[in-house]
From TrEMBL:
PANTHER family: HYPOTHETICAL CYTOSOLIC PROTEIN, POLYMER-FORMING CYTOSKELETAL PROTEIN. InterPro entries: BacA/B. It comes from the Bacteria. Pfam families: Bactofilin (PF04519). Signal peptide: none annotated. Residues 1-46 have a biased composition (Polar residues). This is Polymer-forming cytoskeletal protein. Residues 1-58, 161-180 are annotated as: Disordered. It comes from Chitinimonas arctica. Belongs to the bactofilin family.
Length: 198
């Protein structure tokens, strides 16, 4: 009934060798794919996805950070006291903070006053960058753009009213008092007596 080519080991059930061979191949394939995936994740985590020339100087270690994720829309907001805003989705807002980072597929529309802006995606509106504006190759800006310093990679696009900050734009806006100004009071000079009394 059995020839020499198909003899089975008494301790191995029929067909188990072929199953273990197939399972072994699947296991090795799965382990190889898992190893490749782990290597890819390790490389992504070990190096930042968005290299930043201004990151060390502009981002506090323990600062407040807001991340608007991909497929998230934030509309009609006023963003204040945020050290770093990372835009991966779409934001329509006004903002006065320290660092704005727009990711490759992110978009920001509105009015922004910021220390450092890094644009990989799209910006439309008024942008005042007090220190440094960095436009990467995939970055697109449209509107009124003012900057302290600018760096544009080949391929980056700017359209609209673009120029360096002037002295008046770079100064903080003075806070106006709500109390009425007092009229100056005339001062009358009174001579001092210099003699002795007698």
């Amino acid at each position: 009934m059995f020839n020499k080519a198909t003899t089975l080991n008494k301790s191995t059930p029929a067909g188990a060798e072929s199953r273990s061979s197939v399972l072994g191949d699947n296991r090795q394939s799965t382990l190889a794919r898992a190893s490749e995936t782990q290597k890819a994740l390790d490389s992504m985590l070990s190096s930042p996805p968005v290299p930043s020339a201004a990151q060390d100087a502009s981002e506090p270690l323990n600062g407040s950070r807001l991340i608007v994720g991909a497929n998230v829309k934030l509309k009609g907001a006023e963003i204040l006291d945020c050290d770093t805003l990372v835009v991966e989705g779409r934001v329509e807002a006004t903002m006065d903070s320290r660092v704005l980072r727009i990711a490759r597929h992110g978009a920001f529309a509105g009015k922004v006053s910021i220390d450092v802006a890094e644009i990989h995606g799209e910006f439309e509106g008024e942008l005042l960058v007090r220190e440094q504006l960095i436009v990467y190759a995939t970055g697109r800006l449209k509107g009124q753009i003012r900057y302290g310093r600018i760096q544009v990679e080949e391929g980056g696009e700017l359209a609209g009213d673009i120029g360096p900050l002037t002295g008046s734009e770079n100064r903080p806006v003075p806070i106006r008092s709500t109390t009425p100004e007092l009229a100056p009071v005339p001062v009358e000079r009174i001579p001092l007596a210099t003699g002795t009394s007698g």
